[in-house]
Amino acid sequence: MGRLVVVSNRVPPPVDKGATAGGLAVALRAALEEHGGLWLGWSGDTAERSDGLPEVRTRTEGNISFSVLDLSQRDQEEYYQGFANRALWPLLHYRLDLVDFDRRDTSGFFRVNAMFAAVLAERLEPDDVIWVHDYHLIPLGDELRARGIRNRMGFFLHIPWPPPDVFFAMPCYRRLLEAFTAYDLIGFQIDHDAENFIACLQRAGMCRQAGPETFMAGDRTFRVGAFPIGIDTRAFAETARRAAGSPLVRRMAESVGERALVVGVDRLDYSKGIDQRMLAYERFLRSRAEMRGRVVYLQVTPKSRSEVPEYAMMQREIAETAGRINGGYSDLDWTPIRYLNRTIKHATLAGLYRMADVGLVTPLRDGMNLVAKEYVAAQDPEDPGVLVLSRFAGAARHLSSALVVNPYDIDATAAAIAEGVAMPRAERVARWREMYDHIERNDVHRWCADFLKALQAPSAPVLAADDVAVLKKAS
Fold it and tell me: Could you report the per-residue pLDDT of 22-37, keeping only the tens digit for each?
């Protein structure tokens, strides 16, 4: 393998030794350090520019180059705020009611991907292996192929993929599907997402199966597979153990006292089911009057995409729900919901997870949801908390010892909160051990290694038509 070239919408900031980096950044940095390489993406800033390619700013850390470029205000509005976050994001999360299809935004999305491709093509070496990340950059591989790039290229989608009847609502669905076929390997979080994607290709008549997980579109052969992402399990467990003694976590523990603590941590997004979760907690308080004053629910929700109207409206609605519940149930010495609409350091969150009796992770739809895995990793092995997990999070495919719920079923989620708060220690330990062993074996480093190994593997031999029929029948 030559250099590794990673392309993502955003590039991580310089290493801060006093901070805890996210697991994805840790794993990709480790892979880049092993092979040497380049990480390219948007800086997050905007700057007006004349015709031509934008200026690229590069910093070097060891044998890794981190290169960023600014977008114009128009690029940001059309590519990022528009098509990526008002069309693709809601569509891939099954929210057709929130999708905004705009031709100008669609054009901007493909234009910016072409710009990224032009910038990257100038920096590539013949034996580079390219790994493209997430929905913002789906067309990038196709744009690189159009510029004559023949390197091995993989794509990984971090969010869900819907079935054909949902995805085909996208006016440019064929163009997006064709762009995928430029990659040598297309990875999804879970098998259900991979199956949905393959169904889209087959329903559109754009590929034929050529072998196990191998497909052909025209003269191109590509593979599709599930690569469930993990966390840096051991490092996070150690961070949580140390954070339990931090002043902030200790103050939180003192303020909670002998009450049970339920914690939810989510970026502000309609896919996370925060409003439904609060309603389930309210149902728990209403149906179990004896628990009032004995449980505190902490919801940490940093603001996200505030410039998008749907997000600004959602922020108001969730704050109103929390205020209404607190107004109806609070007492002089007890507030049922503590709602924090700001960012908390990752290490502090680890300490909060560790002290929480119940981790409430109930998205309406999520590709994986690493908060669920972080909550498990953070627990005290001798006295762990209970994970309440949505069946619609990819993590539920692997953390079956959690209390798995339908987040749309308010009564069932309320009952799971009650079960988690009252669960005996022996059962908590048994459930936690099974989940921890899984996330320890399948951490983010294994995910990274598995994907790159699959990307470098030679294409599977193309099967004859009779063999394909046998394969389909067996599956």
Answer: 557 777 888 898 889 9
> How is residue 23 written in tokens?
């697991």
Q: Which CATH superfamily is domain 233-440 in?
A: Glycogen Phosphorylase B; (3.40.50.2000)
**Residue-range domain boundaries for the chain:** 4-230+447-457, 233-440
Q: What is the pTM of this model?
A: 0.92
CATH fold match for the domains 4-230+447-457 and 233-440: yes
Give the other-Cβ count within 10 Å of 452's Cβ. 20
- Catalytically active residues, by annotation: 158, 366
Identify the pLDDT of residue 70: 95
> What's the CA gap between 264 and 134, in Å, rounded?
25
What are the tokens at 16? Answer: 């801060």
CB–CB of 19/53 below 8 Å? no
Residue 112, C-beta contacts closer than 8 angstroms, at least 6 positions apart: 71, 75, 78, 79
- Helix, strand, coil percentages in the chain from 3-state DSSP, rounded to 5: 50, 20, 35
68 strand-pairing partners: 41, 57
Phi, psi for 179 (deg, rounded to 5): -65, -35
Task: Quickly name the fold that domain 4-230+447-457 has.
Answer: Rossmann fold (3.40.50)
Q: How many Cβ atoms from other residues are within 10 Å of residue 148's Cβ?
A: 7
